[in-house]
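Let's study my pick:
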Amino acid sequence: MILWLNGAFGAGNAQTAYELRRRLPGSYVYDPENAGFFLRQNLPSALRPEDFQDLPLWRALTRDTLRFIAERHGRVVIVSMTVVDRAYYEETIGTLAEEFDFRHVILWAERETLQRRLASRLEGPRSWGALRIDRCLRALAEDIPGEKLLTDGLSISKAARRVADMAGLTLTENRWSGLRRTLDRAAVQIRHIR
């Protein structure tokens, strides 16, 4: 199964993805942003768009890498990536959904919640994610299909449990101590500050 978590920046995509990985033995988290950053760093400046999703090469790489992993891994592959352009959605998510057991869950949060969460990870009102909140909310409400999960007021553990239920997956018990879980979540948050 490929389980794609979509949502506006600050909706909890990355934290929920890594919580699922901790509680789904053998699962793997694939982060397409890493491919985007690789392309951005390795292309001449004249060929770098503001958003790496605008590169057909990124969309093909994302789709083909996920196909490669899903065909060979044999376990749940979790993807954490915001995709709000309908054509890009069709080219990546739509294509994979035709080939695999695929679940697309949109983590939804209200604007104020997204702003608060972005601020908690030191992203100000002029950050990449903050400047795109309205675009994301509009597209995810109107253009991008998927099951929605309201994350306002949900803990990461509860969000992961609900996503797992939506996907028909069974999570293991959360055996990590409070301190270890807090440190792991902080590490995920730090890795995803852009």
Q: What stands out?
A: The mean pLDDT is 92. Residues 19 and 128 are 24 Å apart (CA to CA).
